[in-house]
Design brief:
This protein is an all-alpha fold and 132 residues long. The protein has helices at 5-24, 30-51, 57-76, 79-82, 89-95, 101-128.
């Protein structure tokens, strides 16, 4: 549990940021693009809070990016309507209903930032370890 705590805290904080953006931000940049960048981090932290696999951090980050791309493609085919949940607002918001090319770009930017953070964290930890 102790190793999972930073992931859990990060997940809850960023999930809160996402909710605040969804509820209160009505602009042309943060809501449409910032939220899509951050959601990649939220999903990554959620997965890590469950599995806690820092040794697989790069794999998980790339897997989350692929997942985000798949969800976006499903939006393009109207998946939420195909499975009969299109009339329920919660599922339209959760799954999304419109595919946009810029969403792919935002997910990729979020993943690159996440991968850089993993790289920097690993370098920082490696430098703080005692030399043999």
């Amino acid at each position: 549990m102790k190793k999972r705590l930073p992931y859990i805290i990060g997940f809850l904080l960023l999930l809160g940021v996402e909710v605040l953006i969804a509820l209160f931000v009505r602009d042309d940049f943060i809501r449409p693009y910032g939220g899509d960048i951050i959601v990649v981090w939220v999903v990554y932290l959620f997965v890590q809070s469950i599995f806690c696999r820092p040794d697989k951090a790069y794999h998980i980050a790339v897997g989350v990016l692929i997942f985000a791309f798949i969800v976006e493609l499903l939006q393009g085919i109207g998946f939420v309507h195909l499975i009969g949940l299109g009339d329920i607002r919660f599922f339209r918001i959760l799954m999304g209903t419109d595919m946009a090319f810029l969403d792919f770009v935002c997910y990729a930017v979020g993943a690159v930032i996440n991968l850089l953070a993993i790289f920097i964290r690993r370098k920082t930890v490696a430098q703080s370890l005692p030399k043999k």
